[in-house]
Amino acid sequence: DTAVSQTPKYLVTQMGNDKSIKCEQNLGHDTMYWYKQDSKKFLKIMFSYNNKELIINETVPNRFSPKSPDKAHLNLHINSLELGDSAVYFCASSAHGREETQYFGPGTRLLVL
Amino acid sequence: KNEVEQSPQNLTAQEGEFITINCSYSVGISALHWLQQHPGGGIVSLFMLSSGKKKHGRLIATINIQEKHSSLHITASHPRDSAVYICAVGGGATNKLIFGTGTLLAVQP
Question: Can you list the alpha helix ranges (DSSP code H) found in chain A?
Answer without folding.
Answer: none
